Amino acid sequence: MTPQQKAESLGIVFEKLTPGYLNLCIRSGNQLLSSGHVSDAKGKLGAGVSVEEGYAAAKNCMEKILRSVWNTHGTLDGLKVIKVLGCVNSAPDFTDQHLVINGASDLLHEIFGKDGDGYHARSALGFASLPTGVAVEVEAIFEVKAS
Predict the structure, then answer these.
(1) pLDDT-based confidence at 141, cuts 50/70/90?
(2) Does domain 3-17+24-144 have CATH number 3.30.1330.40?
(3) Is 128 strand, coil or helix?
(4) What pLDDT is recorded for position 101?
(5) Are 30 and 79 in contact (CB under 8 A)?
């Protein structure tokens, strides 16, 4: 199963988006760089939002990123995941940001393969706040592989 087929089998729906204020994904050379995509979930990890809810929020962010990548590239096929940056709205003593951002990474592993094109570098960071009070924001870089 190709990455595009796998994503669709997981229920991710791809549809053309109307361009907005910022470019959600831009191609530069052989790379696709996404803007930060925020979760639908709001709140602070370690102060009302559980790790499991944060994990789901990070997965939600990555689904949005994949839609933006699809809008720029036309398919998820022929891509390699290079880097993921996960930002977690964290209480001062919360230290499980990495477990939250696993929601994004695990989805990429499922679609692109953990040992193949989905094996990526990653940073998971805690922030005192994120725009509009969202729980998680994620951005990613993909390589367009030579055909």
Answers:
(1) very high
(2) yes
(3) coil
(4) 98
(5) no
CB-CB contact of 100 with 51 (8 Å): yes
The pTM score is: 0.97
Instruction: Say if CB 119 and CB 81 are below 8 A apart.
Output: yes
Query: Distance between CA atoms of 141 and 81, rounded to whole angstroms?
Result: 6
Give residues with Cβ within 8 angstroms of 116, minimum separation 6.
Answer: none
List the one residue out of 111, 48, 109, 54 whose CA is nearest residue 87.
54
Distance CA 9, CA 76 (A): 13
In sequence order, the β-bridge partners of residue 80 are 143
Domain boundaries along the sequence of the chain: 3-17+24-144
20 — pLDDT class (breaks 50, 70, 90): confident
Could you tell me which residues are beta bridge partners of residue 144?
A: 79
